[in-house]
Amino acid sequence: xxxxxxxxxxxxxxxxxxxxxxxxxxxxxxxxxxxxxxxxxxxxxxxxxxxxxxxxxxxxxxxxxxxxxxxxxxxxxxxxxxxxxxxxxxxxxxxxxxxxxxxxxxxxxxxxxxxxxxxxxxxxxxxxxxxxxxxxxxxxxxxxxxxxxxxxxxxxxxxxxxxxxxxxxxxxxxxxxxxxxxxxxxxxxxxxxxxxxxxxxxxxxxxxxxxxxxxxxxxxxxxxxxxxxxxxxxxxxxxxxxxxxxxxxxxxxxxxxxxxxxxxxxx
Length: 267
What we know:
The chain is α+β, with helices and mostly antiparallel strands and 267 residues long. The chain has seven helices and twelve strands. β8 and β9 form a beta hairpin.
């Protein structure tokens, strides 16, 4: 088992690998300030059946790495947490390689007749993967509860490092905060032990990690209110004040989050 779950805020490099009894991360080699170490493709295995979650970019080397990981097993489904290209672009190519349908909330990202919706259950051998709608980062964002491993697979709703972008207008902060509350309730009620995120390392203490996310969002909202009270008039004005300590290459993404925050704060 090479993957290691860490507390939120750990800065050690992430290389993927097996994290829980049934879940292994195949790390895509697409690192960037937005994707952190790269996109995490999660392979969930029960005996000789597997599902692949978020095939990642349409990169031959990454698809080949996924194929090596699932070799000798029947891939029954490919699941998407959401439709952003760094998570979903390789889905169709992988589907053709392994002969499995692609399931997603958004019909535009499906391949086959089957979709995903809140409350659905996907069986993988004797394992149960329960679908949890967690909109906010995108309208179509889903999380998956791998009950046997006490694991929450969160896509971009909760990352292994830092915070996610709420990309206005598709992303909506009110929805995102509701999703975080829902995930924290689920983590507490199910005694979840690990978050398997879409980027960055697996996290210990899911309930604590989600609580930290909520606290961070409240802190940012307070900072935005203060910037407005001090005379900021535009999203760019707010970014210059609130995100002054963030590298400038991330300011365009920060601006999208600020637009979502301003939309949320409107009376």
